[in-house]
Amino acid sequence: MDLLFENTNTKKLPFEFPNKKGYSYKWDTNRQVFIIQIPNGELIYAEHFFDKKVSDRSVDYFLESETHDWKKTNWRDIEPSTVKWKNVNWRHDQIKMFGKIVPLPRFSAWYGNEDKPYTYSGLTLQPNKWNKGLLFIKEQIDKVAGVEFNSVLMNWYRDGKDYISWHTDAEPELGINPVIGSVNFGATRRFQLRRFDDNKEKIEVPLKHGTFLLMRGETQHFWQHAVPKESKIKEARLNLTFRIINHDKKK
Fold it and tell me: How many Cβ atoms sit within 10 Å of the Cβ of residue 172?
């Protein structure tokens, strides 16, 4: 659903953006977000959508456990299945690559409505029930996105060595022109987009503590995205990608 926005550029995007045909942005005063047009796609961006207090509390809430202090634990030596978590059932999933079973370079968790399983990279995830923290965040971004998300994939990047390679969020259960709402807490990481038909055509967006980024329109059909390794980063980052799963409207 397209929402009206104020036709003014009184604010400048806080990151480098192509100044050429097909690229433009507008500041939406009412929702305090940028509406960004890219060739065959659209983004919504808010650098500090959630303030520091909410963002700090979100990290603590999502990583809280009865057995480990998340700030002091070396998570490269601990598997999440050995931890008694309070709010999020973190997993360390494995996938098959080149005939070998390898662990994903990040922890993850799938939450949502009970009838919304999700399949990606050969994994089929059954949803955990919504918790209070996720529902609070979902309610805030639903208002801006103009949709009602029913699921969220949570990714925990333990440090800059964790990453996600080039991919699209275009699984059949997401339907045509998926709407993907991404919320970020913790360390700032580079979020990259590149076109399928020209990998040199790239956009890089810094995702900071409390940043919200939404992808919609044809974005998933023409653009891939990734979060590359950044070995110098020692802090954790949480990324919540909210989605709309509809098994009745597969592509």
Answer: 12
